[in-house]
Specification:
Blueprint: H1 2-30, E1 40-46, E2 49-70, E3 76-80, E4 88-89, E5 94-98, H2 101-144, H3 149-189, E6 191-193, E7 198-203, E8 210-211, E9 218-233, H4 234-237, E10 245-250, E11 258-265, E12 275-283, E13 294-311, E14 323-328, E15 333-338, E16 340-345, E17 348-353, E18 360-364, E19 375-377, H5 391-401
Helix pairs in contact: 2-3
Amino acid sequence: MRYFLFLIAVGLSGAFGWHLYGESLVSVESEPKEKQADVAAVDVVRVVRRPIAERIELVGSLEPVTAVEIRSRLSGYLESVPFDVGDRVKKGQTVIELDDASTRELVSRAAAAEQVAAAQVKAQVAREGQALREVQRLRELADSGVSTSQQIEEADSALLVSKAETELERARLAQAKADLERARLALDELQISTPISGYVAERSADVGDLARAEDILMRIVDLSSIRTVVNVVERDYAKIKLGETATVSVDGIPNRRFTGRIVRQSPVLDPATRTAKVMIEIANEDALLKPGMHGRVVITVSRLADALAVPASAIHGPASGQFLYTVDEASNVAMKQPVSVGFRDGELIQVLTGLNANSLVVTLGGRLIKDGAAVDFVEPPGERLASEFSADRNEHAGSAAE
């Protein structure tokens, strides 16, 4: 009996399973075999031939071409510091004065010593003249037999001694003059003047401070010319030439570009970074550029009057296999197109092979489609050109050319 019931249960289970299998087949057959492909929305531009330039973009800090540190050769207390940070100074102006009381006293003493030495020279010259006249008198008397040869010899010796003493007094006068000149130079050094025109950038001393030879009392910078030193990578090093112009802009002065010139180029590269230093000088007559500003440098190294270029966002793939997507306007189908590229000009990349003028190129959405995908346009084709992507670059290039 139990065996009979077991056979009935197995039969019912099999029948129920077969029923479910049949319904699943019916459900599968009722579904469509192919799902309609989705249409991707993409942004496109129309490629045109246009001028393009190869530019190297670099950054560097601005610094003055000429700057001096004011120090004192002598130790002393500061008596006057007439200029402060930001003040304009002219070449030759006194910017630091030290207490000169003791030095003036030295000058007075040296001047008095010079006068004494000059008087002693005059007195000795008179004595020498007297000795000379005595020799002449004795020789005249010798002709009359009044003076002796011994007296003449003694007079000659006295004349020689007098001449030697005159030379000694003259040497003492020269020494006194040198001492006076040295004292006057020391007095002049207590008034420190600037060797350049410019602005006071730093002041580290006040009236009453003790100045020492190793102390920097003031720093003056000339802002008429500014420079920046940038590091150029190895692949761009040979493209840069001395005398070429560069365009410099700073964040602190928007919508203003300054023209610089390459004046120095390091003959060696840093083995650690594979870069070389390049110095660019910028005219700064209105003193708008300040040392310490962050400068953005653009150097145009070559130009093409007629080239095909596409936005950088259109290019995909590694350097060894780059490609983009063009769109067939009749079918709105994207087609993968291998290309070879040249240099980059801001947001544009030069296309050397694989592209024709007037083609529609996908710029946005290219990473989400495949070859042969149906696409729709975010904007109607023809309303945007690839040249629009570098309108500001053309303005930049014009500034550099000036």
